Description:
- This protein is of the alpha/beta class.
- It has two domains: 9-245, Spore Coat Polysaccharide Biosynthesis Protein SpsA, Chain A, CATH 3.90.550.10; 251-324, no CATH class.
- The protein has helices spanning 19-30, 50-56, 100-114, 133-143, 176-180, 202-208, 220-230, 271-285, 288-305, 310-324; strands spanning 9-15, 38-43, 72-79, 87-94, 119-124, 128-129, 148-155, 187-189, 196-201, 235-245, 251-254, 262-265.
- Strands 1, 2, 3, 4, 5, 6, 7, 8, 9 and 10 form a ten-stranded mixed sheet that branches. It has a two-stranded antiparallel sheet with strand order 11-12.
- Strand 3 (72-79) and strand 4 form a beta hairpin.
Amino acid sequence: MSGESQDTIAAVVVTYNRKKELGKCLSAILNQALPVDAIFIIDNVSTDGTPEYLVEKGFLDSAALSSDKEPLESVKTIKSPLFSDTTIEVHYVRMHENTGGAGGFHEGIKRSYDAGFDWLWLMDDDGYPVEDQLLELLDKTIKNNLYFSGPLVVDKDNEQALTFRPAHLRNVENSVDAVKADATDGIIYGWVTPFNGTLISRRVIDEIGNIKKEMFIWGDEREYVLRTEANKIRVGTIITAVHLHPARIGKRERLLFGFLGRVIIRPPDKANIYYRNLGYLHAKYYGLEKHLKTLIKHTVFFLVNMKFNIKGLIGFYRYYIDGVTDSYSLPPERK
């Protein structure tokens, strides 16, 4: 199969205040060796002039900006820059509030799935696919009976390093070659890093449903992968497909000089979202041991590293338990 498939493909891009990065992402989608049938742009109420920018770039009609409909919706048909006989539907949806990556992808998946597309190609606005990514993904995915696949996600400023890599290779040199060497016939089975050029068959949504939108950020991608694994759905990373993305920026802090390992540090105004999602993931997919380790590590973090930050520790317990019970009842501190 080399672009000859009649399967329909919709790209889903979630954006928030990154209009120029979004423009580069959309341009990369339009210039794929295999054209998409539609693009769904889900705008989490950007405040940087994203709608006006999309009008300027030809993805949105100016008449849509005068609409008082909430959320703002628009559909525009544009011509493919590479295939003269191909048109692409561009669906723009401006959400009524910032729903995070989880809410944005939930909306994009729902709309593209309801529209009947066979494959959904998902990505954030700050990364972009190389020109043959979609062709490689669809070809290898179908040939190898996968239903959920992704490309290698490579640092856009250092194409010899990966932005995301498998857990079992984190103690070796971060290099594209090291990860490729781990592949079997060009695929690393059982590993994928959503949502960075991730290709999902509608059969997956048929079987396991949509993204858990309540998670907002930090954890929704991992939860969806764990859900696919729990339902014995084949996933894999196609090493001949590449997605360029900024280097991963994260902070981890050692506990008791590293004796208890490390904890991930999140911005204080959003940390409770992470704690709650952590609780949900551990309760849904892991056992008691994972709970105990997490509770011990974070207790040490707040009492030792944070010098008896009792308020922070109580907040951690409250939100972690909220996730464990899947109640999601506490108001998240998010902006």
